[in-house]
Model the fold of this input.
Amino acid sequence: MDLGLQDKVIIVTGGAKGIGEAISRIIAQEGGIAVIAGRNAADNEKTANAIIADGGKALAVQAELGKVEDCKKVIDATVAAYGKIDGLVNNAGANDGVGLESGSPERFMQSLQNNLSHYYNLAHYALPYLKTTKGNIVNIGSKVATTGQGNTSGYAASKGAINALTREWAVELLPYSIRVNTVIPAEVWTPLYETWINSLPNPKEKLAAITSKIPFETRMTTSEEIANTTVFLLSGRSSHTTGQILYVDGGYTHLDRSIS
Ligand code: NAP
Done:
């Protein structure tokens, strides 16, 4: 299936590592241009250079996305380089463990800044350009918004808000033919996941316990599986899909986990 992404300019926040890296690579494999925006310049360059070495197109933009001015910088740099924006993938985020007991009002607000505000800020600054191209937005959420996890109020609140904003933006942007969808991962092996599992007392046992409860093939989802659905949603092949929250999680969130 030709996804029709040739020379489409698509911003991927956190596009240097993990799920974001897989999305950037698949955009480029489909002929699109991946604009990789993230806090670590060396990571961004490494992934962009790897894509270019494979014959694809990519641009690296350093941005600490918790800062409003850096969100604007990402949009300005993209337009300066290519003159248009065809898609925005809001992906950057981290489960930062700001709980009710363990956290504080200040850390809670900081977590919203790091996990939620930039989803709005980038969509806000990209909107004039998305209106021109009838581009679209894909957000990466988390099953935590539905299931809870404990000890992560800021991250859970951010991901819950992202689900709400998906519906809200899909409605607001109907007049412009801009589609907005969200992809929900549950358990995906990425640098972030590795750091998180290793922060627990018995990481190996915990990983085995989690994996054994993933209904479909009792295995983790791959970053590429998240990326394939994301890139399909970015493409015109999903031209009548908007306001949807898609769980790419091997049934983890909704199927009966006692079966495995
Ligand atoms: P990852 O491996 O840590 O990659 C995320 C990338 O985004 C990193 O390069 C990170 O930079 C960057 N980043 C994060 N927050 C940023 C910020 N505020 N400003 C600039 N750069 C930022 O994470 P991942 O596991 O691929 O997760 C990607 C998305 O999937 C997140 O929204 C996460 O909530 C969601 N998700 C993941 C899983 C999973 O199982 N992995 C499950 C549910 C949801 P640094 O490395 O320098 O921090």
Observations:
- The beta strands are 9-13, 33-38, 57-62, 87-90, 136-140, 179-184, 245-247.
- Residues 14, 16-20, 38-40, 43, 63-66, 91-94, 114, 140, 142, 185-188, 190-193 surround NAP (CB under 6 Å).
